[in-house]
Amino acid sequence: xxxxxxxxxxxxxxxxxxxxxxxxxxxxxxxxxxxxxxxxxxxxxxxxxxxxxxxxxxxxxxxxxxxxxxxxxxxxxxxxxxxxxxxxxxxxxxxxxxxxxxxxxxxxxxxxxxxxxxxxxxxxxxxxxxxxxxxxxxxxxxxxxxxxxxxxxxxxxxxxxxxxxxxxxxxxxxxxxxxxxxxxxxxxxxxxxxxxxxxxxxxxxxxxxxxxxxxxxxxxxxxxxxxxxxxxxxxxxxxxxxxxxxxxxxxxxxxxxxxxxxxxxxxxxxxxxxxxxxxxxxxxxxxxxxxxxxxxxxxxxxxxxxxxxxxxxxxxxxxxxxxxxxxxxxxxxxxxxxxxxxxxxxxxxxxxxxxxxxxxxxxxxxxxxxxxxxxxxxxxxxxxxxxxxxxxxxxxxxxxxxxxxxxxxxxxxxxxxxxxxxx
Length: 423
Known about the structure:
The structure is a single chain. It contains 12 helices and 11 strands. The chain is α/β, with parallel strands linked by helices. Strands 5, 6, 7, 8, 9, 10 and 11 form a 7-stranded mixed beta sheet that branches. Strands 1-3-2-4 form a 4-stranded mixed beta sheet. Helix 4 crosses helix 5. The chain starts with a helix and ends with a strand.
């Protein structure tokens, strides 16, 4: 065997071993942080000597095999999560002509506290300063000089040098950077001043625009959140982060489904791996063996102002949600008093024919639930909301599904509201 062929064999072996370690890190992420795992596993990971560490453009991750080889398992886990966060925070879309090196610094100063607050580890020397916790990347960029002073390494898991407790998310801050946060065109490779994985501009292919690329990223982020919810691994910080970075108006159907989803109790099982994630990522996650709600109560305002098509669309949507979350449903018809109570088991299609036509009072429904001991994990009240909510909030979540009125300036003392517009 020639020296050249021997070197080629060794190089191939190193690439194979590195790829194996990267795949293992993503598999660990699936078990511990499925939200970030779905992001990471959706990217095309390939070895490259164009970068000293790693870099992502939102579609691919290019990693230096020597860099990966030097990391221990915990550090590699943190770096893979770091690259996923670049995508979640859309750093590949927001540079807007800013200096690439300082943009990477700013991005790392924002990301690294989030990773450390989760108890994860990053390579020694990573950029860390508690003053950037919860700030926007644009704000962080504006604080940086062209040659910032070296920063101390990030603390280890569980350390909190600030004594300020935990804080997560991509806060709004006081954005002082220039531009609108978006840039079209090819990204160019740059250095990774933070040493924990960089970001380059998103490639915009023929037929695409920066807006379509961002829309695709939003879809991916929401899919990742759904996967985390289904695995029982979502959190308030993830929910808040997704809302902050996507900021896409939701339809009333999406909001209704979100409300029910957050009410559902999920049980996971390894007996039936999640086939969708297995197909898309190559890794097995425990599937949801049962997702259920102990009992859902639908209150229908039958005072006479609700149109038949509006109620029909609402009930149809509830039934569609029950395809995912089978549950028993109690429908309570109420104007100024409870007129009728209907019960449907989890496999029975809903059929709602309103009974009533008097005035409007909301309290009788809640009194009925309590007096009759109706199983209620959550209550959704379908109403025009022309009535007084002059009683205390119950100990279960409530959503007011409002029809037939302008929501501007409308406030309720408790519960969530959505405006139901029939298309």
